Each structure stands twice: as C-alpha cells, then as structure tokens.
Amino acid sequence: MRTFGGYVWADSPLHRAPAAAKLVGLVVGAALVLAVRGPITLAAALVAVAVLGVVSRVGWRRLLAPLWGMRWFLLVIVALNALLFSVSEPLFSLGPLRLTLPGIERGLLIAARTCLIVVLGAMLTATTTPQQVVHGVRELLKPLARLGVPTETAALAVGVTVQFVPTLLRESRQLMRAQELRCGGFAARGIMRRAVSYVRLLVPVFVCAVRRADELSRAMEARGYRVDRRRGATGERGCS
Amino acid sequence: MSQTKRVVIAAVCAALGVVLPMAFHALPGAGNVWLPMHIPVMICGLVAGPVAGAAAGVLAPVLSSLLTGMPAAPILPSMTCELVAYGLASGMLAHLVRTGRLAVDLYVSLVGAMIVGRLVGGALQALIFSQGTYSLAAWVSGYFVTGAPGIVLQLVVVVPIVAALERAGLVDARYPGKE
Fold first, then answer.
1. How far is B98 from chain A (nearest CA, A)?
2. What is the pTM of this model?
C-alpha cells in the first residue's frame, strides 16, 4: 500500500504562506507542469520544484515517498507510450508492439510530469494542516456563496475528507495485517491472489469508515452543528 | 438520515476514494482495470442519496489528484464528470427503485448506475474531451473490456457492503423490521 504522509512540523516560508495561496499555487503549478513540452522546460520545472522542496524544509524523503508507491503506474505509462502510441521508425517490433524512440521520450516526459505534480501535492500536504486546507477552501469558495452555493458545507466536506485519508489508511493497514496473520495473501506473488485479498478487505474497511462517519456526525450534532439544505452548515465551527 | 450525516458520509466515501486506489495501485495497471474509485462513490449514492453521491464523485478524484497525483490532471475532468454521474444515478435509482427486496433494489440501482455512468462518460468523451477522435470501439474497449474486472468487482462487493452497513445499523434500513 502507498504511504501518505501528513503535516511536517517546520518553520519555512511555505509553512507560513496562506493555505488559499498554496492551493491556487498548486493548481497553477500543475497547469504549468502540464505545459512542459521539451527537455529545457522540463529541466526548468525540475529546478523550480527542487527549489521549492529546499525552501519547504520538509525533507526529500517525505516529498518523494509517494513516488515509490506509484512505481508500477509510472512504469505502465512509460511502457504503453514506448510500445503502442507512436508511428515512428521502430527500434524493435513484435506484432502490434513497436518500441520507438519518440514513444520512449513521450513516456518519460509524461511520467516526469506526473512525478512533479505528485511532489507538489506532497509539498502542500506537508506544509499545510487539514484545518488550514479547510480554511483555504472556504476562502476560495467565498465568492460562490453569493450565488447560493453552500460553501460552508463544501469546506466541511473537504476538511473531513482530508482528515480522514490518513486515518483510513492507518485502519486499512491494520486490517491488512490482521488478515495477513489469519490467512496470508497480500505478499502473495500471484496478482489474482493479491486482488482477492484486497477484495476481502473491502467490507471491514467500509464498515469501519462509516462507523467513524456515524460517530463524527453524532458528535457534531451533539455540539449544535447543523447542515441546512439551503443555507449550508451552521452552528459551532471547527468541531470536526 | 440527517443532513450532517449525509455530508460526513460523502466526505468519508471521498476519503475512501483516495485510499482505495492507493491500495490497489500495488497491483500493476490497477486503476483502469479494477476501478477502485467507483466503489465508494456508488456506495455513497446508495446509502446517502444522489447529492451526497455526486459530492463524493467530485471530491474523490479532485482530492486524490491533488494529494497523490492520480488521476493525472489531463484525465481529471472527464473522470470527475463520470464519477458524478455514478453517484447521482446510484442515489436517484436507490430512491426510486422499491421492489420490497433489498438485494434486488440494490442490484437494479447499481447496474443502472453503472450503465448510466458509462453512457454519460462516453457521451462526454465524444462531445467534449476527445471530440472527433472518439469511437464506439474506444468506448467499448475503455469502459467494458479494460474495466471488466472492475465491473465484476463492483457487482461482487457493493451490495454486500451496503447490506453489511444496514445490518450494523450504520445507515437507514430500507425496509425496517424486515431481515
């Protein structure tokens, strides 16, 4: 299972920056990374992300950790582009598979772009607490409130989602370990055996998650938090 | 079910929509094949209604893309629209279909949502996201052939999960007093 780190305590300009600015920065940064076409712009993007990584004082181990979990996904992207999506002169061909140099370049470029966006996302979560993310989303959505959009409810939903991701990952790992102890399976070599093990895990994961949702909603209501269909969330704030 | 609980269930299902793909990506090429993000979105629609399902359909891919880079930004808009359709359709069908038998209701709603989501996804690809380059063969291949294991997985796990949640008293029973 992939790792998902949380907030990293440090004092850096990125930690002190407003969450709304970081969220906008992430979207803009991702758009710029997607606009990367050649080696020069890719090198510039790499340098920019490296500088941000140094400035954030989070540590490269934390920033690069999500990439290890994506290794298969990245490998498939490179392989598909290298073997299937190019009509250039092949270096090697086998049936419909044609290994081409432009295909390899394109696969590596797409994989590099994905890695950069993942590192930017990791930088956001490492330098911004879930509460700051909620506040940032609330700030960004504020103009929509005039159009009748329930922005408080939307911010609440985003906040609960962000807070629940590490919790559910931890619980899933515990359930996986318990299942491994009982009947093995996740370390099994066969893909089908591993898949069956994941399927067995789904019912307890969902029951645990919805039980937590039930407890949280009861606690929020007990503290006077109400979600109005038309007006959005009302009552005590920050009780999640 | 209170509105607060609907919002929290949508958020928790969206969080599962981030967590499950992370688990399934230990299997090569798992995202397109096992469709792990679809499961929590459809379950959210079935237990908390169409609005909550649609909300989970927006939150799960957007936050997953921001936090983990998956789905990649170029396919995020089409995937978000498709997941919103799954959440909306499963919620609406769960509200409309009342046969008196829980399993039949859920399977009809689930299969209906799977069909509606794929039709909406294909229509959006053809009209907006891959205009002029999308074909019926690409639709069948992308939504039915590549994702066949995911379709089977959804048919196998979604209904038992919803039934387990009802049995545990965590969501409103469709037919109270009936086992």
1. 24
2. 0.75
